[in-house]
Design brief:
about 575 residues, BirA Bifunctional Protein, domain 2, Herpes Virus-1, 9-stranded mixed β-sheet, 6-stranded mixed β-sheet, 19 helices, 29 strands
Length: about 575
């Protein structure tokens, strides 16, 4: 029998050392839900803060962080299309009555089930597909809505849902946010928060969850000036792109992908490149990630164009860790229609433009003779005709108002010239959306290293928790006192730090390596003589000696500055 593979070893490490494990494990657990333990919770916080630093703090006066509720009223998700379109295909076994994701069953048979439409799934299942558990026949695929439903307050009629994405909270607050940022024509709203999706059959451990953390940006811009405000920071970043319908990737810079029309929006190209750089900073090499274009038949209901960022992990192969969508004006238009609110913005033109428009005029006396008591209602409606209604009158020669028909005997159509000094429009949106939990696992998967039969978790130094370990060589002779003083000094300087005096020094080094602590500070007998300490690098196991007076400065250069250990002090001729 073969031993555990890399994934099993990672999961065992995470359970044993308090990174993450199944939720409610004492009751048998619930698939699709995980707990983050004492170490994992803080590493995840560091990951969220890294995303915040990279995408929000680095874009001052452009991207603003927001927060909105987890529970969302039903009418919001009706307007957004999630009530009707947020679904997965399911199938039920006619023998054992178990339910499965219809596309996943085909995936396990070697078919590309997730890329199939419902019609293609129906066709595949019509030929007979067997249950992966009992071997019985699986029924015809059906759609299953992924929303978690609840009620707001004690009344069942006040339906609500756990939000499936943070995006809708940002769309519904758009007017308030637009005014708060002084009506900028280009700006982004960002949000980090929990979301819920009632997955049919969660699998792949932390890769597919029913509750998880999203990190999203909604970038609003003028569709007639889509390049406005786009930074040139990443335009020369090389992207590996797999266009829908192709089995090969092409390598192009973000600028080239935009110019060749492979990517349809400047903001979309910018965030693809930024996302690649961000994930690379988590320890995933460029060769281990690419962008997969979602084919038209599989696009989310709100999207004009979507690219999935794929990252390779040992057990599962290529998995999606982020999605980048050009949502157009879908969300704002639909929320405006359903809420009767104004989601347009005003744009001043550089030069006034002379235009001609059609105008409906009426004879109030004739309308009064025709409609009597309803005259006021009819005229009020005539004063607020939409452009669509005016065009309809131009074609048909009659108007239907309040159940009444008006013709040429009472109303007429004319043209008038006017000067337009500005225009109103609904902003378009590009959305990069990251799954924090998948990124967390991908980072750990790429960091998991075995050296001389010892596990070393090489996660980026600035994301590790704790970031420093303090170890007295012996817990006596004043070494422990010196070490605890160093502990307080390091902690007061803002580093997360742990203290360990139990067991042999090599065993303690191994414990720190296993959870990814980047640097160990060792206090030995020389420390008592000259006030120096040893710094040990988690990845190379090399050591240098530094003055305790410069200790916190040296740690800052190593952890946050990314400097090599040898630049911090006098090298020692030993590893371990």
């Amino acid at each position: 029998m073969s031993g555990p593979d890399r994934y099993d070893k990672i999961i065992e490490l995470c359970r044993r050392r308090g990174l993450f494990y199944p939720s409610f494990e004492v009751y048998g657990g619930v698939s699709g839900l995980i707990d983050y333990g004492p170490l994992g919770a803080r590493i995840k916080v560091n990951l969220l803060n890294e995303w915040r630093r990279f995408f929000v703090d680095s874009s001052p006066d452009l991207v603003y962080e927001t927060e909105s509720p987890l529970v969302t009223p039903e009418n919001v998700l009706e307007a957004s299309g999630h009530l009707s379109s947020f679904t997965d295909p399911v199938t039920t076994c006619t023998s054992c009555s178990r339910t499965f994701r219809a596309d996943h069953v085909l995936e396990e048979s070697g078919l590309l089930g997730e890329s199939m439409t419902m019609r293609e799934l129906d066709e595949a299942y019509s030929k007979g597909v067997v249950c992966p558990v009992c071997g019985g026949k699986l029924g015809k695929p059906a759609v299953f809505n992924l929303l978690f439903k609840t009620s707001i307050g004690p009344y069942a009629s006040s339906a609500g849902y756990i939000r499936p994405e943070t995006a809708q909270g940002m769309f519904t607050m758009f007017r308030r946010a637009y005014e708060a940022v002084r009506e900028k024509p280009v700006f982004g709203l960002a949000q980090i928060g929990r979301v819920g999706r009632n997955e049919v059959s969660p699998r792949q451990g932390p890769i597919r969850l029913r509750e998880f953390t999203q990190m999203e940006i909604e970038m609003f811009f003028d569709p007639e000036d889509p390049s406005a405000g786009v930074p040139s920071t990443y335009e020369d970043e090389t992207l590996r792109l797999q266009v829908a319908g192709s089995s090969e990737t092409v390598s192009l810079t973000a600028k080239e992908a935009l110019e060749k029309g492979l990517v349809g929006s400047p903001w979309l190209a910018h965030y693809l490149a930024a996302g690649k750089r961000f994930v690379e900073g988590l320890g995933v090499e460029p060769s281990e990630q690419y962008f997969l274009q979602v084919p038209p038949g599989k696009l989310p209901h709100y999207s004009k164009e979507t690219w999935d960022q794929m990252v390779r992990v040992e057990r599962w192969g290529w998995v999606e860790v982020a999605g980048y969508s050009y949502r157009g004006d879908f969300d704002l238009v639909n929320h405006a229609r359903h809420s009767k609110s104004d989601f347009t913005v005003y744009k001043q033109l550089r030069e006034p433009v002379k235009l001609v428009r059609k105008v409906v005029r009426w004879d109030a006396g004739k309308i009064r003779r025709l409609f009597g008591a309803k005259t006021g209602q009819v005229i009020a409606k005539l004063k607020n005709l939409t452009e669509e209604e005016i065009n309809e009158f131009s074609k048909k020669g009659v108007l239907e108002i309040e159940g009444l028909t008006l013709g040429p005997e009472a109303i007429s159509l004319s043209e008038e010239e006017y000067e337009e000094r500005g225009r109103r429009y609904v902003p378009h949106v590009v959305e990069p959306s990251f799954g924090a939990d998948r990124l967390m696992y991908a980072m750990i998967d790429h960091a998991y290293t075995v050296r001389e039969d010892r596990v070393v978790l090489m996660i980026p130094r600035r994301l590790a928790y704790p970031s420093v370990g303090v170890l007295p060589l012996m817990a006596k002779d004043g070494l422990d006192v010196f070490a605890r003083q160093a502990l307080l000094k390091i902690s007061h300087a803002g580093f997360t730090v742990t203290y360990d005096e139990e067991g042999a020094i090599g065993r303690r080094y191994a414990r720190l390596d296993e959870v990814g602590v980047p640097v160990a500070v060792t206090v030995d007998y020389t420390s008592l003589e000259d006030g120096t300490v040893t710094l040990r690098d988690r990845d190379s196991w090399r050591q240098v000696r530094v003055s305790s007076d410069k200790l916190t400065h040296s740690l800052d250069r190593f952890i946050h500055g990314g400097e090599d250990l040898e630049s911090l002090g006098e090298p020692l001729n030993k590893e371990g």
